[in-house]
């Protein structure tokens, strides 16, 4: 059996160079959001879970709330962040809004599509229970189907039986079925 001592260091050096090349290639890679967080409607006090999957999976993931970076979990808001998952323990008017996950690498960062967390408000009219989905909107105290409220120089009248306009001119849905 013949042993060549000079080949072992050369083989080790070759593997080392290939490993460095692979690491450098990773440094130039830009992350991608492969699964976007989904918008959701939840009742007051309900739990909301937003998920985000990024590639490569080891990349740093943070979250934004209404455009502002969340610095990890926020006990005051009742928000828990664990990698690609954001949990709102009890939805309230302070946690309603737009959420985005952000994936960061040395070569760059990418943000997900915003997911809107909307508050569903239940009320009764003529013996029926209705739900309104409100996202970052001020909703005046008016009866559905009899909307004659003026605010922010906008007069809202004559909404259809299943829709109403909110203060910021977004359509919000109204339904008589208890879907929550």
TrEMBL record:
Keyword Lipid biosynthesis carried by entry: no
Pfam families, per the entry: Ig_3
Cited InterPro entries: Ig-like_dom, Ig-like_dom_sf, Ig-like_fold, Ig_sub2
PROSITE patterns for this protein: IG_LIKE, PROKAR_LIPOPROTEIN
First and last residue of the signal peptide: 1-25
Keywords: Signal
Entry annotated with the keyword Cell cycle: no
Residue span, Ig-like domain: 31-118
SUPFAM superfamilies membership: Immunoglobulin (SSF48726)
Protein name: Biregional cell adhesion molecule-related/down-regulated by oncogenes (Cdon) binding protein (Predicted), isoform CRA_a
Organism listed in the record: Rattus norvegicus (Rat)
């Amino acid at each position: 059996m013949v042993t060549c001592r000079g080949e072992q260091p050369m083989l080790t050096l070759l593997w080392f160079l290939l490993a460095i090349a692979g690491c450098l290639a990773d440094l130039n890679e830009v992350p991608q959001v492969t699964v976007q967080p989904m918008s959701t409607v939840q009742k007051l006090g309900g739990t909301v879970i937003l998920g985000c999957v990024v590639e490569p999976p080891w990349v740093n993931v943070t979250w934004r709330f209404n455009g502002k970076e969340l610095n990890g979990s926020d006990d005051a808001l009742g928000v828990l962040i664990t990698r690609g998952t954001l949990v709102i323990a009890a939805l309230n008017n302070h946690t309603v809004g737009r959420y985005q996950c952000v994936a960061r690498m040395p070569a760059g960062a990418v943000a997900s599509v915003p997911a809107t967390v909307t508050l569903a408000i239940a009320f009764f009219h003529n013996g029926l229970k209705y739900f309104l989905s409100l996202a970052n909107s001020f909703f005046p105290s008016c009866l559905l189907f009899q909307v004659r409220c003026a605010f922010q120089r906008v007069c809202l009248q004559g909404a259809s039986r299943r829709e109403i306009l909110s203060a910021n001119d977004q359509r919000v849905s109204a339904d008589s079925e208890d879907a929550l």
